[in-house]
Design brief:
Elements (H helix, E strand, L loop, with lengths): L7 H8 L3 H15 L4 E11 L28 H13 L4 E6 L8 H14 L4 E5 L5 H9 L4 E3 L6 H7 L5 H13 L3 E3 L2 E3 L5 H12 L7 E6 L16 H14 L4 E4 L8 H9 L2 E6 L11 H11 L2 E2 L34 H22 L1
Parallel strand pairs: 1-2, 1-9, 1-10, 2-3, 3-4, 4-5, 6-7, 7-8, 8-9
This protein binds S-adenosylmethionine, 6-(5-methyl-2-OXO-imidazolidin-4-yl)-hexanoic acid and iron/sulfur cluster (SF4).
Length: 369
């Protein structure tokens, strides 16, 4: 059970160990590899919202479900610069731009995203993108534009993944991480707890991440935000103790990584979040919105930082600022990649798609009348 060679039994042993011991061990590992008073603060910006063709059961941005989000086309350079400057002035050292895409396509929209990356890089912020599946050539173009990190979550174990998503396969996620790595981008990949998965699923996902060579530089741990209209709307809020266990286990199996206490913080008390920091969380998403759902106000987070004696980390504390390369990235012809589409039936996803269809038809008729 060394680095990059973790087996499931050992990870489950860590995960299931007495919480008081687990917390102490994780806090010890955290102090050996990180400054426990520093927290990397990241702001999320949804640069293209909603209308996504995928069927991820947790996601309010999937077009096939009926949720209450406002759809938006790609943001302009000015809109992104404004948001980035604001995020920086509030203490964020990283901007993570998210698009509700299945995968990146070689088109004008992608060229525009490259311009957005350059613009944020010029503000001396760490630039991260989460745009769906991506080829090596596309990853290189992003790296040449000055991207620092690529976020692409495994979300759960390979087995449980099949119970929440039918429109893409787990291997595509792993291939994308490899493509980001091949372009020398830092890798950010984690998952969601509270979707109905077992402790074994959680540990299997951690095993896959921990056995990547090298391990991801950052691992977000999200608590499901159960959004009305999605197939997972009725899931109960995950207990803080499970969140602490997950963060502590992540900390222990990937000692160097930055563990990100991600979605779900509005459902956590200050004391609960403090335990997550003790357990080795070294990063948060700040700002009153994640991509589409609420997040604590910056003032609340600053109050918590003051209480705990935490400090926001400077940009590029753990790596160099990437330069912006002006010449064309790669002119190599890329083999055409066909991302998979397993297409198996997930009853809840089918049911919620049908309900959404009915609701849309109903509101169309009401508008006509
Ligand atoms: N479309 C791209 C993709 O799926 O890779 C990027 C954006 S997607 C919204 C990024 C991540 O947000 C997902 O992988 C998932 O981990 C997280 N996410 C989405 N909806 C969530 C929810 N309701 N609760 C917690 N995390 C969520
Ligand atoms: C991650 O792991 N969590 C963030 C970020 N990476 C892209 C996204 C959380 C989204 C929560 C639901 C929403 O706001 O739409
Ligand atoms: Fe689309 Fe990403 Fe949401 Fe899945 S998680 S529906 S791919 S935006």
């Amino acid at each position: 059970m060394k680095e990059n060679n973790w087996d499931l039994k050992s990870i489950l042993e860590v995960y299931n160990s007495p919480l008081i011991e687990l917390l102490y061990k994780a806090a010890t590992v955290h102090r050996e590899h990180h400054n426990p008073r520093e927290v990397q603060v990241s702001t999320l910006l949804s640069i293209k919202t909603g209308g996504c063709p995928e069927d991820c059961a947790y996601c309010p941005q999937a077009a096939r479900y009926h949720t209450d989000i406002e759809k938006n086309d790609l943001m302009s350079v000015d809109q992104v610069r404004f948001a980035a400057v604001n995020a920086k002035s509030q203490g964020s050292s990283r901007l993570c731009m998210g698009a509700a895409w299945r995968n990146v396509k070689d088109n004008e929209d992608f060229d525009h995203v490259l311009e957005l990356v350059k613009e944020v890089n010029r503000l001396d912020m760490e630039v991260c993108c989460t745009l769906g599946m991506l080829t090596e050539n596309q990853a290189k173009k992003l790296a040449d534009a000055g991207l620092y990190a690529y976020n692409h979550n495994l979300d759960s174990s390979e087995e449980f993944y099949k119970e929440v998503i039918s429109t893409r396969g787990y291997q595509d996620r792993l291939d994308t991480l490899e493509n980001a790595r091949a372009a020398n981008l830092t890798v950010c990949s984690g998952g969601i707890i509270g979707m109905g998965e077992s402790a074994e699923d959680r540990c299997k996902m951690l095993m896959t991440l921990a056995n990547l060579k090298p391990q991801p530089e950052s691992v977000p741990v999200n608590a499901l935000v159960a959004v009305e209209g999605t197939p997972l709307e009725k899931q109960k809020v995950v207990s803080i103790w499970e969140m602490v266990r997950m963060i502590a286990t992540t900390r222990i199996v990937m000692p160097q990584t930055t563990v990100r206490l991600s979605a779900g913080r509005t459902q956590m008390s200050q004391e609960g979040q403090a335990l997550c920091f003790m357990a080795g969380a070294g990063s948060i998403f700040a700002g009153d919105k994640l991509l589409t759902t609420p997040n604590p106000e910056v003032t609340e987070d600053m109050e918590l930082f003051n209480i705990l004696g935490l400090l926001p980390q400077k940009a590029y504390a753990k790596g160099e600022k990437p330069g912006i390369k002006t010449e064309e990235a790669s002119t190599e012809k890329e083999r055409s990649i066909k991302w998979s589409r397993p297409g198996h039936t997930i009853p809840a996803n089918v049911e919620y798609t049908a309900v959404a269809k009915e609701k849309r038809a109903l509101s169309k008729n009401e508008n006509k009348a």
